[in-house]
Amino acid sequence: xxxxxxxxxxTGRPSALVGRVSLSMDNLKVCILDYGSGNVRSVFNxxxxxxxxxxxxxxxxxxxxxxxxxLPGVGAFGASMKKIQERIPLTVLENEAxxxxxxxxxxxxxxxxxxxxxxxxxxxxxxxxxxxxxxKIDSRGLPLPHVGWNNIEIKKETPLLADLGNSPDFYFVxxxxxxxxDTSHVAAKTEYGSEFTAVISKGNIFGVQFHPEKxxxxxxxxxxxxxxxx
Amino acid sequence: xxxxRLIPILLLKNGWLVQSKQFxxxxxxxxxxxxxxxxxxxxxxxxxxxxxxxxxxxDRRRSDQGPNRQxxxxxIDDVSRAAFMPITVGGRIRTLADIENRLKVGADKVSVNSQxxxxxxxxxxxxxxxxxxxxxxxxxxxxxxxxxxxxxxxxREVSPYSxxxxxxxLESQGAGEILLNSVDRDGMKTGYDxxxxxxxxxxxxxxxxxxxxxxxxxHFAQAFEKTKVDAVAAANxxxxxxxxxxxxxxxxxxxxxxxxxxxxxxx
Lengths: 230, 267
Description:
- The complex is a heterodimer.
- Chain A is α/β, with parallel strands linked by helices.
- Chain A has seven helices and 14 strands.
- In chain A, the strands form three sheets. Chain A has an eight-stranded mixed beta sheet with strand order 2-1-3-4-14-13-12-9.
- Chain B has helices at residues 34-41, 72-82, 96-104, 114-118, 122-130, 163-173, 194-203, 217-226, 244-254, and strands spanning 5-13, 16-21, 25-30, 47-51, 87-90, 109-112, 135-144, 147-152, 157-158, 177-182, 208-211, 231-234.
- Helix content of chain B is 31%, strand content 25%.
- Chain B contains nine helices and twelve strands.
- Chain B starts with a strand and ends in a 13-residue tail after the last helix.
- Chain B has a single domain, classed as TIM Barrel, CATH 3.20.20.
- The mean pLDDT of chain B is 91.
- By secondary structure, chain B is of the alpha/beta class.
- The longest helix of chain B is centred in the N-terminal third of the chain and has 11 residues, at 72-82.
- The A-B interface holds A 1-2, 5-6, 9-10, 13-14, 16-20, 38, 41-42, 45-46, 49, 75, 143, 145-151, 169, 171, 173, 191-192, 213-217, 219-220 and B 1-3, 5, 40, 43, 45, 80-81, 84-86, 103, 106, 108, 131-133, 176-177, 205-207, 216-217, 230, 241-243, 246-247, 260-267.
């Protein structure tokens, strides 16, 4: 049986195969915000497949000159917020993201931090860019953290989730999730015991609970979509 | 819905990838990084990368395939650049600093085996420091006088524990997952030890990853059908067949198993 498979796959490659993703954008500059988050390298590695114009920095001038801003994250809400406040020029960042409306992507804790408050290990204040709180997932007895590949259900049409089909799989690692005040900000949901918000969006501000940098093709498509945002 | 996973395992011995048979015979497979690139392109759900070297000598002895590497961490650094999927790194982990060093160069999780036996607090400390999701407890079971016994140090040291006892202990200490390997089936291509897998899965709530013995795609199906394993892992079967992971995924997907659809990606 093995030999037969070995033979058939040599004669015809599946049509699902896609070529190298191309980006049409000139003077692109992606700044991955550096505050000591553990996954910053993995995020950088996958962006550098898509474009050479990507760098890791927390300098105000780099945040200002960037066209796209990415806030990575792993770990607890409070500890991450503390490091973000210490190491990232927040006034500059808020001006670039909220006034100049540059495309912004928060990943995992980088998404959660967009809320008003987080309830992991006590109550902590977030950036408050998208109204909501970050609460523990009601997994109805399923083990937490929620680790592994799970599909998202797209709830709102957004360019970030283009070309992904209806329920693409992404890689998750978390116990807490974003609970929004305004359901119009929900772009996608995922089910693990109960439903939680997997993708949030408000104008140019996007947040994803999963790790696109670990999600192979779906992750790469999502990040390409992000880079194509203006 | 959360998916069951298909996980290739790569074994590194002194800078070379090897194939293992019953933890005692090894055959050279080659470059430690090019294999990772292939496995990523074929749509593996995760990768487990285990260092089974007995000393600190790492040498690829090939300068035509990228820079030579003298340390395990340098190799893992290369691996993490080649794989856009979660990576579990294991082997020779003795201290919390060992874990931190592996995470720094791009590992997402670590697998701990013998140190959990040598220091009964180690898993607890590691889980507290890095989170349970980061700690995969690996255990090797061997049949001795007709019953399963947990063994350590690559099978050289026999413990007093049954697999169920030890698995429950690992869970209570805070391990996030259990990688359950059968020494008897290792490299034998005769299928997983379903009795062993079923007995452990019944007694723990954390995900169990099956390992040891897969010789054809239907062995993966058997493990999902007959036991409650969350993931199936294998080493040798993924090495000798082009697009192996894709074909295995396709087999499981077409037979209605809860796995990610098969897909090839060029990254």
